[in-house]
Design goal:
- There is one protein chain.
- The protein is an alpha/beta fold.
- The protein is 40% helix and 25% strand.
- It has four helices and seven strands, in the order H-E-H-H-E-E-E-E-H-E-E.
- A five-stranded mixed β-sheet has the order 5-4-3-7-6.
- Strand 6 and strand 7 form a beta hairpin.
- The two termini are 32 Å apart.
- InterPro entries: GreA/GreB_C_sf, TF_GreA/GreB_CS, Tscrpt_elong_fac_GreA, Tscrpt_elong_fac_GreA/B, Tscrpt_elong_fac_GreA/B_C, Tscrpt_elong_fac_GreA/B_fam, Tscrpt_elong_fac_GreA/B_N, Tscrpt_elong_fac_GreA/B_N_sf.
- It comes from Microlunatus sagamiharensis.
- This is Transcription elongation factor GreA.
- Pfam families: GreA_GreB, GreA_GreB_N.
């Protein structure tokens, strides 16, 4: 992967939320799961101890999330959402027309719900690393791009509109 796809763009608010989650999981979260494992272990036979196995499963999921957050924050570039950009970038709301047909469009946010701090939005969200996202990244209104769909079909799109998200 290139350095551009390795960098994760975050608003300061999203960075702070992810950092707080990491601190919670790494500190009190780890202590809580360890205590649950220890308590379940004291109950005896571990082969048929559902509480022990559930706590171990939670521990594995928590450690995976800690690794994911650590990696995301290590690669993060903190900045503000684009305020007045005509160029497709993370944090922009993009409308594309398929094969130049302006009656066949899709509007979506380029970014990530998680890294942009969006928990519940109705807007479709595409990653800048996705085939579509990487094809249109850096393009402007009127530009054309193409990408390969998962089924191998080449899809041509035209950028119809670019605006900062939330405007």
């Amino acid at each position: 992967m290139s350095e551009a796809t390795q960098t994760i763009w975050l608003t300061q608010d999203a960075y702070d939320k992810l950092q707080a989650e990491l601190e919670q999981l790494s500190g009190p979260g780890r202590a809580d799961v360890s205590a649950r494992i220890a308590a379940a272990r004291e109950e005896g036979d571990l082969r048929e101890n559902g509480g022990y196995h559930a706590a171990r499963e939670q521990q594995g999921q928590q450690e995976a999330r800690i690794r994911q957050l650590t990696d995301m924050l290590r690669r993060a570039e903190v900045g503000e959402a684009p305020s007045n950009s005509d160029e497709v970038a993370p944090g922009t709301l993009v409308t594309i027309a398929f094969d130049g047909d302006e009656s066949d469009t899709d509007t979506f946010l380029l970014g990530s719900r998680e890294v942009l701090g969006l928990d519940d939005v109705d807007t479709n969200v595409y990653s800048p690393q996705s085939p579509l996202g990487s094809a249109i990244l850096g393009k402007s209104k009127g530009d054309e791009a193409s990408y390969e769909a998962p089924n191998g079909k080449k899809i041509n799109v035209t950028i119809v509109k670019v605006q900062p998200y939330g405007v």
